[in-house]
Write a structure and sequence with these properties.
CATH class of the largest domain: Alpha Beta
Strand order of the largest sheet: 3-2-1-4-7-8-9-10
Radius of gyration: 24 Å
CATH topology of the largest domain: Rossmann fold
Structural class: alpha/beta
CATH architecture of the largest domain: 3-Layer(aba) Sandwich
Shape: globular
Helix content: 25-40%
Distance between the termini: 70 Å
Number of domains: 3
CATH superfamily of the largest domain: NAD(P)-binding Rossmann-like Domain
Length: 425
Amino acid sequence: MQLNIGIVGMTHLGLITAISFAAKGFTILGFDKNPALIKELKVKNFHLMEPDFLELYEANKHNVQFSDDPSNIDKMDIIYIAADVVTNEVGLSDLTYVNNLIETIIPYIHQEALLIILSQVPPGFTRKIAFDKNRLFYQVETLIFGQAISRALYPERYIIGCIKPSQPLPDKYKFLLQAFECPILPMRYESAELAKISINCCLVASISVANILSEICENIGADWSEIIAALKMDKRIGKNAYLNPGLGLAGGNLERDLATVKALGHEHGVHTEIVKAWINHSNYKKDWVLRILHAKIFKKIKNPHIAILGLAYKENTHSIKNSAAIALLSHLSEYRVKVYDPIVAASMVPFATAATSALDAATGADVLIIMTPWPLFKKISLEKLAQQMRSKYIIDPFTVLTHSSAAALHFAYYTLGVNDYVRAS
């Protein structure tokens, strides 16, 4: 079956969806109302950082065209609303652009075409759209920054919200989804909208457990990395459980879902204090590195030179939304700080000095802090750090470097979930 698929909203979600569908042989129209953005896309200025994206685009660009003309929508068999939903500092969603896109393209959708909402929206949103409900669906997106291509090409399942879950999906929609060879789970609109939030709440619960217990490890001499293996062997938890400790929630998506649950709980009289506790603990955990600095470094070294590696909130993305690194740097303006990130410009931190490499940042530093676990930081030579740094302190929350090797070189090394192994001599 030949299908023409319109992807509306050419931000991260829309671009990844467009290219993954093109890779399955479908003809794709990438639409956005912003003419300047479409002009950039036509010359391959994609403004996103995702492993394998450019290679996949080059291999399938014959199946993709970009346009800012909404009249082209009338040629599409299936239209996806796939704009990213922005959030504010407390996780509340701004759906203005999504609503605007829907209003723009609905007049151009032909009478047999399907409309799919892929943007993450709160429960109740899809049902309120003024469109034939037999042709209206909500599809849960489960992309992860830095892993978006693999998640789009090899989904675990498709969760589909529809008006009548007991009835078969339209043939063309089913044909599209079956190209990805994964289970398809139809359910009512509100269930699908809440399913994504439910997934993220379970993830936040797991993260919170890891963060709390890993900090206990730091105080009693246990090693959380040893405990993780035991937990993953428990069938009730599972080998793929997310149990790595971190520096609080970031990126915006998890924060948005917690804000949505709080709002729904308030509206319907549901007790959500546990959600508030997750948020409070996330905020507390974001200051872990700052607490280490005050407890272990600032008391010993007056006006230390500080090297920060990583500004992005996680590896393989340029996003700094709720980044722990940016939060940390907001407390360090009175210190001498050098910053290096392979993607994010150091100009994001006006008072800091930009370094040209990780080793350049570390030269002359008293303390090296790795705030983003970029793969290239794993290649840093501890021997060279020992030669270049003025004092031997490393704060490495995500254990990018090897603590036993750091100990052998007499570094004071601090990581999440483990008591410090050795103090600088």
